[in-house]
Amino acid sequence: MASRPTIEDLARAAEVSVSTVDRVLNGRAKVREDTARRVFDAAQRIGYHAATLIGQRLQPDLPPFRLGLVLLKEKQAFYQNFRAAAEAAARGAPGVRASVKIVFSPSQAPGDFVREMKRLEGQVDAIAATAVTHVEVTDTVTRLQANGTPCFALLNDFAQGVRRAYFGLNNLKVGRIAAHMTTTAVREPGKLAVFVGGHRWHGHDLRETGFRSYVRGHASAFTVLDTLVNLETRQLTYEATLELLDRHPDLKGIYCAGGGMEGAIVALREARRPREVALVVNELTPESRLGLADRYVEMVIGTPLARLCTDLFAVAAGTLAEEAAPVPGQHFLDPDIYLPESI
After folding, report:
1. How far apart are CA 132 and CA 137, in angstroms?
2. Of 324, 303, 305, 325, which Cα lies nearest the Cα of 313?
């Protein structure tokens, strides 16, 4: 088992003396800011146990900023990665002493998202959430912002025209990317299937629209079947995929616009050979990575979580200093694209 990095290890990594590291840690004497920053960066890089303390020493006079984050599916790998990215972004946020309070909605019901957002009110300076598009959510965002808590939509653009900004992918574009990959990967035209989590996810509707638009314009020899709702669950997706394969022997491609992709991967492994049906999914997880490796997944379209969280902290903290509220906007990030040979 590897030993924990020592103060000597940190000094070597930062290219300073042990006594300099000691001064940074204990504040016994003034250390130049760039030197202290170098020690802090090295501490984060090597996993030094007191890295957080060093960071706090660097920010004694910076204003505090508390961001509340509402996520979903606490045990899912993607949202665990989201949590880690948000915590890292808080540690590195420039110009503020940032912290993040993360809560998880127990379901996709509008009332559960609303309950978590209300629970954060008064504890944080701004709220960012992934939530469904629903009037109850919009009304809550309206009230929160009227009371001085700016709100930001993540991944799914809810409360349009009300929330401060949307952070995530251009979902219409994502759907077109998925259709391009699906129709390019297969050897002859046939039928294509699309799964969405539900029609309260505006982002899923946009992905479906982009997918169908691309097929109409660039791959009209293919037929897109009626869209299937899987409630973002792997079991429903598994059962529906097996039924699709049985009813449509000429099924050539599947796009999972939201969650539940694990079920499609398992069904294809049971019923088809690798690459017989082109499967495109969203977000790199252990399951989708393995699907790429054994060629049951053609492409994974990923959200760049580190960039999203870094940008979110910068914009959200900046809203507190604004004298006038900005026009609500969209902050699109370029997707991460994973192919079998790129993992």
Report:
1. 8
2. 305
Residues 314 and 270 in one domain: no
pLDDT, one tens digit per residue, over 210-265 is 999 999 999 999 999 999 999 999 999 999 999 999 999 999 999 999 999 999 99
Domain containing 204 — which CATH number? 3.40.50.2300
Task: Answer whether residue 1 shows pLDDT above 50.
Answer: no
Residues 326 and 244 in one domain: no
Residues 315 and 221 in one domain: no
**Percent of the chain at pLDDT above 70?**
95
User: Do 278 and 289 lie in a common domain?
Assistant: yes
Total domains in the fold of the chain: 2
Domain annotation covers residue 53: no
Joined together, the tokens standing for residue 27 give 């504040």
* 3 state SS of 301: strand
Instruction: Let me know if residue 87 belongs to a domain.
Output: yes
pTM: 0.82
* 280-287, long-range: CB < 8 A, 24+ apart: 280/178, 280/181, 280/182, 280/253, 280/254, 280/255, 280/256, 281/255, 281/256, 282/174, 282/256, 282/257, 282/258, 283/78, 284/336, 284/338, 284/343, 285/76, 285/77, 285/78, 286/77, 287/77, 287/261, 287/262
Residues 6+ apart with CB under 8 A from 301: 169, 174, 177, 178, 280, 281, 282, 283, 335, 336, 337, 338
Please indicate, yes or no, if residue 138 is contained in any of the structural domains: yes
Summarised one tens digit per residue, pLDDT across range 86-121 is 999 998 887 788 899 999 999 999 999 999 999 999
What's the start-to-end Cα distance of the chain, in Å?
28
Is 55 among the domain residues? no
Residue 102 and residue 248 in one domain? no
Residue 118 belongs to what domain range?
A: 64-169+304-333
Of 104, 108, 117, the residue nearest 143 (C-alpha) = 117
